[in-house]
Amino acid sequence: MRHVERNQRVVVLALDGVYPFELGIPSRILGAADGRYEVLTCSVDGRPVSSNADFTIGVEHGPEILATADTVVIAPVSSERMTLELPEEVRTALTFVRPDARIVSICTGAFVLAAAGLLEGRRATTHWQLADLFRITYPHVDLDPDVLFVDDGRILTSAGAASGVDICLHLVRKDHGSELANTVARRCVVPPFRDGGQAQYIEQPVPEQGAASTAGTRAWALERLDEPLTLGDLAAHARMSLRTFARRFNEEVGLSPGRWLIQQRVARARHLLESSDLSVDQIAGRVGFATGASLRQHLHAAIGVSPQVYRRTFQTAAR
């Protein structure tokens, strides 16, 4: 976790077949961070690139500018334009990236990193629809298709489309703390955190027409995270049987009610660790974990660090 003292240069690599929306995410999100980032765009040869839409995108820089980047972002291309073998011009462009530069991929950009050997033995993610192809092609990468992004230190990967927003907000939080990241989110009219992971977007059976939603019960539960909520409590609030509620909840959210509750409690705990001086035991009580030990266990399972390390990292970054 880094504490950034100066403005960072972020260089986005645009390849032929690039998605225009995702290509623009780093500039839009990081560009709203009070001048903390300079975002530039390059191609493998300095020439315009075709997009997956009906227009071509002009860029100002060739691959040489990658050598000046603190962070490199690999923008995604449409699956029709993907090649499993890394094109020679892309491989050459990546040689300009400094060994200490942070590298981020959005969506299918993970295929570029994997083909370049940069994800070998690492945990990563990509769009859920391409997860099977990714696993077959790159079996030595620890793929997690259920999350919105993976931070594996120097290399970060994100899932499809709007998860580029999530990972860019994560970069701001990581570099400058939650206060600035929340400000950026408000300016861009996006949530600072999104609940759950890709699982909620994977194609699910459509609930029966006219079926009651669990949304009201989810909102009700979020106001009572400090209480020992059970599946029975949730089903009773939704006025459904346990079986019907669990099935419908999974259809709508892509997670079981129990897993969703843990995610919400961990998210609330992270916020309190960042924004308050409450003890770990006090935070555990406020978010519905029985003990501080339980909070430590669930936080470590979610993000791989202890509450003390998490607090020290983000409270330091905010200063």
**Assembly category:** single chain
Radius of gyration (CA) equals 21 Å
Total tally of structural domains: 2
Overall pLDDT level: 89
Question: What composes the largest sheet?
Answer: 6 strands, mixed
Please provide the count of β strands.
Answer: 10
Return the CATH architecture of the largest domain.
3-Layer(aba) Sandwich
Helix content: 40-55%
Class by helix and strand content?
Answer: alpha/beta
CATH topology of the largest domain: Rossmann fold
**Helical stretch count?**
13
Given as residue ranges, the uncertain stretches (5+ residues, pLDDT < 50) are none
Percent in strands: 5-15%
The first-level CATH class of the largest domain is given as Alpha Beta
Plain-language structure description:
- By secondary structure, this protein is α/β, with parallel strands linked by helices.
- It has two domains: 180 residues, Class I glutamine amidotransferase (GATase) domain (Rossmann fold), CATH 3.40.50.880; 107 residues, Orthogonal Bundle (Arc Repressor Mutant, subunit A), CATH 1.10.10.
- Helix content is 42%, strand content 12%.
- The protein contains 13 helices and ten strands.
- The protein has a six-stranded mixed β-sheet, with helices on both faces. Strands 3-4 form a two-stranded antiparallel ribbon. Strands 7-8 form a two-stranded parallel sheet.
- A hairpin with a 2-residue loop joins strand 9 and strand 10.
- Helix 8 packs across helix 9.
- The longest helix has 19 residues.
- The two termini are 14 Å apart.
- The mean pLDDT is 89.
- Keywords: Transcription, Transcription regulation.
- InterPro entries: Class_I_gatase-like (IPR029062), DJ-1/PfpI (IPR002818), Homeodomain-like_sf (IPR009057), HTH_AraC (IPR018060), INH-QAR (IPR052158).
- This is Helix-turn-helix domain-containing protein.
